[in-house]
């Protein structure tokens, strides 16, 4: 008989791109995950996955089974959450550390939904750079935090993506272009944000052989925009969460496209409110992918 464990293993292998990654995500041994998928294939009488050096791919039968497997796993997860909510209301304090660029766009709607579902939980919100968020998580000042994914040593769920864009003065030669490349930005003085964005685009710059001439540093995005407005340099910032652009500043799509994947992370010893918030984010992410 097909079990939820088999379906969960199958879905996780597909979503993680392989058995090794799935075993890490599930906290199970790789042979255990392989046996679960093999048992499911045996029961269905068809191979669901093609194993290769570059990971796994779905067979025709696998594609047909995946949607149903995801639906079953989602329903079981939702059932467990609702039963747990009936059995015992979540109480206490949710200490959440967020990044200023995503609090209004990605975090606030999730906190609103969480407060409606768990009215007995007090919510405490901290804002800081990504480095500060990680420090607060490590030190116990916050039990949940918004971080760039992937993240090691913490349980996490996908919150959303931020597309990075080029930010240039309106009278700069780059403003007339439909897209702006890393190499073109490197020809101008660069204004770097110290709030965590640099960790996203710096590896991309290195990969394409570009090094920026950093002329200014600023923590707040509004400060970066004002420096760019003063014709003192160009920058890269996340499009989601940008303050209103001042006159004299424009944004352009960045080439190559650079995306910052954000998630909510909690420590293994996180409290019930933090765990409940993580489960909400995971459920939201699962629904968004369908």
Automatic annotation (TrEMBL):
* Domain HTH lysR-type positions: 1-59
Give the molecular function GO annotations: DNA binding; DNA-binding transcription factor activity
Its domain of life reads Bacteria
Entry annotated with the keyword Transport: no
Q: Name one Pfam family in it.
A: LysR_substrate
Q: Which family would the database say this protein is a member of?
A: Belongs to the LysR transcriptional regulatory family.
Q: What do the Gene Ontology cellular component annotations say?
A: protein-DNA complex
Recite the UniProt keywords alphabetically: Activator, DNA-binding, Transcription, Transcription regulation
Q: What is the protein name given in its UniProt record?
A: Probable hydrogen peroxide-inducible genes activator
- Write down the SUPFAM superfamilies for this protein, in alphabetical order: Periplasmic binding protein-like II, Winged helix' DNA-binding domain
> What is this protein's function?
Required for the induction the katG gene for catalase. Involved in the response to hydrogen peroxide.
The transmembrane segments are none
| Species per Swiss-Prot/TrEMBL record | Mycolicibacterium agri (Mycobacterium agri)
Q: Where in the sequence is the signal peptide annotated? A: none
Q: What InterPro entries does the database record attribute to this sequence?
A: LysR_HTH_N, LysR_subst-bd, WH-like_DNA-bd_sf, WH_DNA-bd_sf
Q: Which PANTHER family match?
A: HTH-TYPE TRANSCRIPTIONAL REGULATOR CYNR, TRANSCRIPTIONAL DUAL REGULATOR HCAR-RELATED
């Amino acid at each position: 008989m097909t079990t939820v464990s088999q379906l969960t293993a199958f879905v996780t292998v597909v979503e993680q791109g392989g058995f090794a990654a799935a075993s890490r995500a599930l906290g199970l041994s790789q042979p255990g995950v392989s046996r679960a998928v093999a048992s499911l294939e045996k029961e269905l009488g068809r191979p669901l996955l093609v194993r290769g050096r570059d990971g796994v791919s779905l067979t025709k039968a696998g594609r047909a089974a995946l949607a149903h497997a995801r639906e079953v796993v989602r329903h079981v997860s939702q059932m467990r959450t609702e039963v747990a909510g009936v059995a015992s209301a979540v109480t206490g304090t949710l200490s959440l550390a967020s990044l200023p660029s995503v609090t209004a766009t990605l975090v606030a709607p999730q906190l609103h939904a969480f407060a409606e579902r768990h009215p007995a939980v007090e919510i405490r919100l901290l804002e800081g750079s990504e480095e500060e968020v990680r420090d607060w998580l490590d030190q116990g000042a916050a039990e949940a935090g918004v971080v760039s994914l992937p993240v090691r040593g913490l349980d996490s769920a996908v919150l959303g993506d931020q597309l990075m864009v080029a930010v240039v003065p309106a009278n700069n030669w780059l403003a007339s272009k439909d897209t702006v490349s890393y190499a073109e930005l490197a020809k101008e003085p660069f204004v770097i944000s110290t709030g965590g964005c640099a960790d996203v685009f710096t590896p991309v710059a290195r990969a394409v052989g570009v090094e920026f001439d950093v002329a200014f540093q600023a923590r707040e995005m509004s400060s970066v925009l004002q420096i760019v407005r003063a014709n003192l340099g160009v920058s890269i910032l996340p499009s989601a969460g940008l303050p209103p652009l001042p006159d004299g500043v424009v944004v352009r799509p960045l080439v190559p496209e650079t995306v910052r994947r954000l998630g909510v992370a909690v420590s293994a010893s996180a409290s019930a409110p933090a765990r409940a918030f993580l489960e909400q984010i995971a459920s939201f992410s699962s629904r968004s992918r369908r």
